[in-house]
Amino acid sequence: MSYIIKGRKLYFRMLGWTTGSVDIWDIVSIRRSYNPISSCAASLKRLEITFRGRSKKYSGMLISPVREQEFFDTLKVIKPHIRINAPVKKDVWRFWDWDI
After folding, report:
1. Most confident of 11-15, 24-28, 42-46, 51-55
2. How many structural domains comprise the chain?
3. 28: closest CA among 57, 70, 65?
4. How many Cβ atoms from other residues are within 10 Å of residue 22's Cβ?
5. What is the pTM of this model?
6. Considering the domain boundaries, does residue 6 fall inside one?
7. Confidence at 96, pLDDT banded by 50, 70, 90
8. Do the domain assignments include residue 60?
9. Rounded Cα gap, residues 5 and 7, in angstroms
10. H helix runs in 1-100, sequence order
11. Of 9, 10, 54, 100, which sees the most CB atoms within 10 A?
12. Alpha-carbon span 57 to 11, nearest angstrom
């Protein structure tokens, strides 16, 4: 699974095929999630992206970009007022890059 930002679009790719996209201006917020439901995320340490869809209703998607901070920085360049709540904990319970 990979995520590509081109222009104002965030594309989701699996095995070389584009499986979907979201306009970055439609993204409302990003938050940390460990939800195990099936999604476009390769790990259980995920980000939940909430966006406004074509029907003007809110939808969500779970993703797991490898370089999260770089991903956030790139999105903020395109849409500076996007809400991101994905803290990285630095304590004794941090295990294999997981926020427990």
Report:
1. 24-28
2. 1
3. 57
4. 20
5. 0.76
6. no
7. low
8. yes
9. 7
10. 68-78
11. 10
12. 20
Q: How many other CB atoms are there within 10 angstroms of residue 46's CB atom? A: 23
The mean of the pLDDT values for the chain is 82
pLDDT of residue 14: 84
The H or E element that residue 13 is part of is strand 9-14
CA distance 30 to 46: 10
Residue 77 lies in a domain: yes
CB 29 within 8 A of CB 76: no
How far is 99 from 33, CA to CA, in rounded Å? 10
Any domain includes 69:
yes
pLDDT at 9: 94
The whole-number average pLDDT for the span 4-19 is 89
Q: Within 13 Å and on the Cβ side, how many CA atoms surround 21?
A: 13
Structure token pair of residue 68: 């999260």
How distant, in Å, are the alpha carbons of 67, 76, 81, 91 from that of 40? 16, 22, 25, 29
Domain hosting 29: range is 25-85
> So what's the pLDDT on residue 78?
94
